[in-house]
Design goal:
The complex is a heterodimer of chains A (177) and B (440). In chain A, 47% of the residues lie in helices and 13% in strands. Chain A is built from four helices and four strands; from the N terminus they run E-H-E-H-H-E-H-E. Chain A has a four-stranded antiparallel β-sheet with strand order 2-3-1-4. In chain A, helix 1 crosses helix 4 and helix 2 runs antiparallel to helix 3. With 440 residues, chain B is mainly α. Helices cover 70% and strands 0% of the residues of chain B. The radius of gyration of chain B is 23 Å and the shape is globular. The two termini of chain B are 25 Å apart. In chain B, 48% of the residues are buried. The chains are: A alpha+beta (177), B mainly alpha (440). At the A-B interface, strand 2, helix 2 and helix 3 of A face helix 1, helix 6, helix 7 and helix 9 of B.
């Protein structure tokens, strides 16, 4: 397995190239775009369904319920003199429940972020060392036989004009990573 | 965007990136002098704290009936200022205000540092800080658990949540910049920044995940921020003391917190602008927009203050009136009206009048607001305690040198943390910066 590397001056052209490659039959999971700044538009082929909201809500519920259960148990385990008020009160434990729920949401967002981005888990396909200051770099993971098909495709896509004024410069190299 | 415009924007961005990273390198004599001065004040404050621990809490001016003084005032003040990061970063991020980008990180850093400093005051105030863990719910040989009905426990839960959330809110958008610094460093520095950037490569997968998480974090952190200052307000409003037991206290505290947070951000920006020569990034328009927010919050603060005092005055309750009179006309009358002048009159005139609005007047108003908001916290805490229900128990309070030293030391600590931060991390988010490049 090797990585074909294509550099694009225009991130929009890079995104379009990814979609075009996907349409031509290249597996989207084998492609990744790298840039120093977020892209204005991500290629449709690389858009991923996110579970961050779900993770945040799930962790928030778990933390809130867990904290409430712990408080209820503790308050029954060692009942304080409450001056006639209930031993376990929704009003007072509610404040801590809210805080722990929000803490759970923060934790959930972080965990799912680390999972989805591939940070920590080593999920990044490759490190395209020496990212250019401008544009984007496309890495395509493929076998030597597939590379023979993909490389001309990339050459063709890069040569396409990015807009009316100037063609995008796409340089394709078959560096091994 | 045309190719020409895109290429110009990319060239500008590369120049801005190099410029901002270059400002992190080296340290001028002025910078070192500032670090030394702040370090000396912090060292003096630490000495005062150590002295208090050794000699006992009697070294403070706290005595019956005033058991809360400068420490609790400072606690509320610093937690309030921490709202700067939340307002500027989270609200403006959610509303898509583009002008926030150069000031976002400065604001987020304020939040984290203020929480660290504010969270220190309860530890100082309990006098035996090594026993703070008694507040935590853990199985112990005393078979004692914390009292979950106590607003002081709510404080612990709220502030720890806010601190963790804010630190993450600051850290997440730092990751791409940390990777950028690692790429341009070598040796141990490169390894350290690489580790901090968690192996960031700039893939579209990572950018998409980061952008999504920042949106979600902004929502959650807003809710946390509002809840935190409501909880801090409940330290007072849950008691039945005169002038504290008020349903308006939670929103009143939140408004005051946002108000002082904006003022703190303006002051920090002005100092950074001078110290790091960021005139091309932190421009007049940023100060002008923050100035307008300051005036808006000043009016909201005035509305809440008026409502709070009008209700207390109209009620004419025998228990409440002595505290109100002490605050408005008695020993603290001058401080009360100074607070109104600082929090309303000065910002309204200097920033509200368009012709007078400039960077110096916005900064001067912000300094006045910070002073005014400290006074406001003082006037909430102390007069009520000086006038308990039983007139025979009335008392007075004057802070000792220990309290003044520790209080002043925290301002120096804030400055010191900031000075160290700006040399270790870019104070403007490089990857987010999309404005015009500096003219020079």
């Amino acid at each position: 397995m090797k990585h074909l590397r294509a550099e694009f001056d225009d991130p929009a052209a890079a995104a379009a190239a990814v979609d075009a490659l996907a349409a031509a039959g290249v597996d989207p999971r084998a492609m990744e775009l790298y840039s120093r700044r977020p892209l204005e538009r991500y290629p449709d082929a690389l858009r991923r369904r996110s579970f961050q909201s779900l993770g945040a809500v799930a962790c928030a519920i778990a933390a809130g319920v867990g904290a409430t259960a712990l408080m209820a148990w503790i308050q029954r385990d060692y009942p304080l003199n409450t001056g006639g008020m209930p031993i376990v009160s929704g009003w007072s434990t509610g404040v801590v429940t809210l805080e722990m729920t929000l803490a759970g949401a923060v934790l959930g967002i972080c965990v799912v972020l680390l999972w989805e981005s591939g940070l920590l888990s080593g999920g990044a396909k490759a490190d395209p060392k020496g990212l250019p200051d401008r544009g984007a770099v496309l890495l395509v993971s493929c076998s030597r036989r597939e590379a023979a098909t993909v490389k001309p495709l990339l050459d063709g896509l890069g040569a396409a004009p990015s807009d009316e004024a100037q063609p995008a410069a796409a340089t394709v190299s078959d560096n091994l990573y | 965007m045309t190719t020409e415009a895109r290429l110009r924007a990319e060239a500008d961005h590369a120049r801005v990136r190099n410029d901002l990273l270059a400002r992190m390198a080296g340290a001028s004599g002025r910078y070192l002098a500032a670090v030394a001065l702040c370090g000396a004040v912090v060292a003096w404050a630490l000495f005062a704290w150590a002295y208090q621990i050794r000699e006992g809490f009697g070294q403070t001016g706290l005595q019956r009936p005033v058991y809360w003084g400068v420490y609790i005032v400072s606690f509320v003040f610093w937690i309030g200022i921490s709202h700067a990061g939340t307002l500027i970063s989270a609200i403006l991020r959610l509303t898509g205000a583009g002008w926030r980008k150069p000031v976002t990180r400065a604001a987020e850093a304020i939040t984290v540092f203020c929480l660290l400093i504010g969270g220190l005051f309860p530890l100082i105030h309990i006098s035996r800080p090594w026993l703070f863990y008694w507040m935590l719910p853990y199985p112990n040989e005393r078979y004692l658990w914390p009292n979950f009905r106590s607003p002081l426990f709510w404080d612990l839960a709220a502030i720890l949540t806010y601190l963790a959330g804010s630190a993450i809110f600051l850290y997440l958008p730092l990751i791409p910049d940390l990777a950028e610094i690692a790429d341009r460093s070598s040796g141990l520095k490169r390894k350290a920044y690489r580790a901090l950037s968690l192996g960031w490569t700039g893939s579209s997968r990572q950018w998409q995940a980061l952008e999504r998480s920042m949106q979600l974090m902004a929502l959650v952190i807003l809710a946390i921020a509002v809840s935190v200052h409501s909880v801090v307000a409940s330290d007072f409003s849950m008691s039945v003391n005169p002038a504290w037991h008020s349903t308006i206290f939670a929103p009143y505290f939140v408004v005051g917190a946002i108000f002082s947070g904006i003022a703190a951000l303006v002051v920090v920006m002005a100092v950074l602008r001078k110290l790091m020569r960021l005139e091309n990034y932190l421009r007049e328009e940023h100060f002008s927009k923050l100035g307008k927010l300051l005036v808006l919050m000043s009016l909201v603060w005035l509305y809440f203050t008026f409502s709070e005092h009008l209700t207390a005055w109209y009620g004419n309750r025998p228990l409440e009136m002595p505290a109100l009179h002490l605050k408005e006309r008695g020993a603290y009358g001058a401080l009360f009206w100074a607070m109104v002048a600082c929090n309303f009159a000065l910002p309204f005139v200097l920033v509200g009048i368009r012709r007078l609005r400039s960077i110096p007047t916005v900064v001067a108003s912000s300094v006045a607001v910070l002073a005014g908001m400290w006074l406001e916290r003082f006037l909430i805490v102390v007069p009520t305690l000086q006038r308990p229900a039983l007139p025979a128990a009335w008392g007075a309070y004057a802070p000792s040198w220990v309290e003044v030293s520790i209080g002043a030391g925290t301002f120096a600590a804030m400055a010191l943390l900031y000075l160290l931060f700006v040399k270790a991390f870019p104070i403007i988010a490089i990857w987010e910066y999309e404005d015009e490049a500096p003219a020079s």
